[in-house]
């Protein structure tokens, strides 16, 4: 579905992404891991149109989408969530979801004056869909809660719910486990797997929790210093010498070696 070809993103003399090439297959849950500063989030931002590339190409289903803006990619079914959740804190959880679909009749002044019946009908349909999404994510009990009062994990579920309001094709999830307790992280993981299997969503996931990555993701791509270091199944990646040194650190590498020789 997504093919990234020799992508570069430079900030002055700093090469945040330095010739990265990856492929994300349709129907996969692909993991993207690497140490802090490896270029993972920058790569996400370039793919999702938040940042323009310095050079290189991004293809989606064979179409060159390099440099398209986030709202243009949104209409193509490509969505990106952020490490820090973005919500309308003073609106309810249900209202946050109802805001997502574009092209609503109530957005136009003329319709607001002369098509109130149509607007009311649309809002009822959106509310029903929002409630279905909340039930799917097992957070129906917070539907009428102000979104700003949610826990970190609930906000991550709300972000995932936004993607369900527009039937996304591919979703880029940036550190879904950041600030999330283990119970809610398991709930998020289960929702991702269900969306993948039941609704055909494709995911690419940045996450530092290797247990989470190992349970969900195949394949796993490793980045270091802006480059792709390795790709494979999670258990293969964990045995890769270069990955152990770059991602896990030489201290752990020596400890693992010592343990194996004991």
Automatic annotation (TrEMBL):
<keyword id="KW-0547">Nucleotide-binding</keyword>
<feature type="domain" description="ABC transporter">
    <location>
        <begin position="2"/>
        <end position="250"/>
    </location>
</feature>
<keyword id="KW-0067">ATP-binding</keyword>
<dbReference type="InterPro" id="IPR003593">
    <property type="entry name" value="AAA+_ATPase"/>
</dbReference>
<dbReference type="InterPro" id="IPR003439">
    <property type="entry name" value="ABC_transporter-like_ATP-bd"/>
</dbReference>
<dbReference type="GO" id="GO:0016887">
    <property type="term" value="F:ATP hydrolysis activity"/>
</dbReference>
<dbReference type="InterPro" id="IPR017871">
    <property type="entry name" value="ABC_transporter-like_CS"/>
</dbReference>
<dbReference type="Pfam" id="PF00005">
    <property type="entry name" value="ABC_tran"/>
</dbReference>
<dbReference type="GO" id="GO:0005886">
    <property type="term" value="C:plasma membrane"/>
</dbReference>
<dbReference type="InterPro" id="IPR051120">
    <property type="entry name" value="ABC_AA/LPS_Transport"/>
</dbReference>
<dbReference type="InterPro" id="IPR032823">
    <property type="entry name" value="BCA_ABC_TP_C"/>
</dbReference>
<keyword id="KW-0813">Transport</keyword>
<protein>
    <submittedName>
        <fullName>Amino acid/amide ABC transporter ATP-binding protein 1 (HAAT family)</fullName>
    </submittedName>
</protein>
<dbReference type="Pfam" id="PF12399">
    <property type="entry name" value="BCA_ABC_TP_C"/>
</dbReference>
<dbReference type="InterPro" id="IPR027417">
    <property type="entry name" value="P-loop_NTPase"/>
</dbReference>
<dbReference type="GO" id="GO:0005524">
    <property type="term" value="F:ATP binding"/>
</dbReference>
């Amino acid at each position: 579905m997504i093919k990234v070809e020799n992508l570069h993103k430079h900030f002055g003399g700093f090469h945040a992404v330095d010739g990265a090439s990856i492929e994300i297959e349709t129907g996969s849950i692909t993991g993207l891991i690497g140490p802090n500063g490896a270029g993972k989030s920058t790569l996400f931002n370039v793919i999702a149109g938040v940042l323009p590339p310095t050079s290189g190409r991004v293809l989606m289903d064979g179409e060159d989408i390099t440099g398209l803006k986030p709202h243009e990619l949104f209409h193509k079914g490509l969505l990106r969530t952020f490490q820090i959740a973005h919500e309308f804190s003073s609106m309810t959880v249900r209202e946050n979801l109802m805001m997502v679909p574009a092209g609503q009749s109530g957005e136009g002044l003329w319709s607001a004056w002369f098509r109130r019946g149509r607007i009311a009908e649309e809002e009822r349909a959106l509310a029903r869909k929002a409630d279905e999404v909340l039930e799917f994510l097992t957070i129906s009990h917070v539907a009428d809660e102000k979104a700003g009062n949610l826990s970190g994990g609930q906000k991550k579920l709300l972000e995932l719910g936004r993607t369900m309001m527009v039937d996304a094709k591919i979703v880029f999830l940036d550190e879904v486990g950041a600030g999330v307790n283990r119970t809610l992280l398991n709930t998020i993981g289960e929702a991702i797997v269900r969306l993948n299997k039941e609704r055909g969503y494709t995911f690419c996931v940045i996450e530092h929790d290797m247990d989470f990555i190992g349970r969900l993701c195949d394949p796993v791509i490793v980045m270091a210093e802006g480059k792709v270091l390795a790709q494979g199944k999670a258990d293969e990646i964990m045995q890769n010498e270069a990955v152990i040194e770059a991602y896990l650190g030489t201290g752990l590498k020596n400890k693992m070696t010592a343990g194996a020789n004991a």
